[in-house]
Amino acid sequence: MLFEIYDVIVVGAGHAGNEAAAAAAKMGSKTLLITMDMAKMGQMSCNPAMGGVAKGQIVREIDALGGLSGIVTDESAIQFRMLNRSKGPAMWSPRTQNDRARFTEAWRMHLEKIPNLDFLQEMVTGILIEGDRVVGVKTSIGLEIKSRTVVLTNGTFLNGLIHIGEKQMGGGRSGERASKGITEQLVSLGFESGRMKTGTPPRVDGRSLDYSKMEEQPGDENPGKFSFTDTKPLSHQRSCHITYTNPTVHEVLEGGFDRSPMFNGRIRGQGPRYCPSIEDKINRFAERERHQIFVEPEGWDTIEVYVNGFSTSLPEEVQHQAIRHIPGFEKAKLFRPGYAIEYDYFPPTQLSLSLETKLIENLFFAGQINGTTGYEEAACQGLIAGINAHQKTQEQESFVLRRSEAYIGVLIDDLINKGTDEPYRMFTSRAEFRLLLRQDNADLRLTEKGHQLGLINDSRLEKVFDKRNAIYELLQDMKQHKAAPEEINDGLDELSTATIREKVSIHQLLKRPEISINSLTKLDSSLANHFQKFDIEVLEQVEILTKYESYLEKERQHAERVESLEGYRIPSNFDYTKVKALSTEAREKLGKIRPETIGQASRISGVSPADVSVIMVYLGK
Prior knowledge:
Helix content is 36%, strand content 18%. By secondary structure, it is α+β, with helices and mostly antiparallel strands. Among the domains are: 203-341, Elongation Factor Tu (Ef-tu), domain 3; 458-561, tRNA uridine 5-carboxymethylaminomethyl modification enzyme MnmG/GidA (Arc Repressor Mutant, subunit A, Orthogonal Bundle), CATH 1.10.10; 568-620, Orthogonal Bundle (DNA polymerase, domain 1), CATH 1.10.150.570.
């Protein structure tokens, strides 16, 4: 036999596929990762950056569970910024600019160190089925490789079609062929498929730009990092820059609209609402005279620059003419034009919360095949799919994160229960418990779960326990330490906050918006030495937990009430057609999605609170 029987086969080595393969193999499954090009494993197909609003929280959660995205990101970063520092901690979101080449190199290096993981450079054209169960894959050269589970992470490659003006070419990325056969087979098996669209901007020669006409955007003065491991923060950084379009740019772009596949009907797939093309922006927001352009270096040593905000599928000559009217781009030289790409996806309501398909047992989907957009959204799905593929081979219970436990839980719950007809992107507003799901406490929330799965070692878990104990110790100390009026009132006056008449605990003082951990040491010099024995992460946690104590408690209580509904399980063979008191829409949606719990049923679009009550009464009988 050319190949042994694998426990898990992962198809595709993008962000989802890499996380899936790494997780399954590290948990003990004999895993095969199949990709069309091993030189492009984990490639950043679009912008050379990780994280951002809500996405940064996801990367930290992946890391806390034992995934590799955070480590790879830190090892290839060229700039770090914590976004939204002026807002509350629920909104703080880490983001890095990355070296595109080093990101891919780091991914491959880490994957090749995993003993249980094999690789194959080939195109998968179909899956092997026995009854209603997947048993392997078949490839373009006729190989049939058997496995107990299969994870499909095909990205934009399923019948991918690239558009540049009036030109069309098959491909999953620029210069790479599309994947054929899988969609057609899955549809023949009863799966519903659709088309989506995404795009990418032109890349330009950084030597041809005039940065003096742009606003510099440096990294943070004291850069952080994504991983909770011992990766090193940046000691020096590369700046990005900001410039803007103008009416002349818009006029040139509009002159090419008659040849735009966006407007002449050649693109049928739905594009990302929150990352529109430049032609879509000037069409939808005609009243705006300018749009922001982020000028992002592609790495430490390359001259290539990514023009973030100028995603387009217009003809090359229109792109080139228009971009040269942007301040700083007057002499810009294009390395390659922007393009749009259409690809197949499968509405995610066809999956269970483990990301296993409902039609075919042991078959998992992760990433853009499920209708999402973004590296981070793909990576977290890959991690969960890889974990659950391994769990399935061991006949273990599926690993599912609740909405109150992680942004990852919110994302998957949204996909399964609400579906999506446009590329899904994560935002903090999607998480009803976002104050609990902060980026700073991802390790405290999830590392123990990663350890239970076998993805986190004992020493790393011990560090989390030490951190938790240190936080508790400092909180108790601050509640017991009292400050006297004669000692601190002058300092309170300087901070423009009310003075005190009697002794008050420093924990109570820290609740004031004008007072920070740092200012406490100035109010009471004895605290400076005491605080020195605690890590900055512990101090930050204590400050957040103190200032937002009442809000956090309310959110925890709300989460507990919501989660109580998750305890009411619905039999998998429950016949909703017999429950006549349900609305017609509820019967249809519930029968299609088949929720596992009352809590899940309550989050399905079209299922009202009255419908939920009816089901609970019916189950009670």
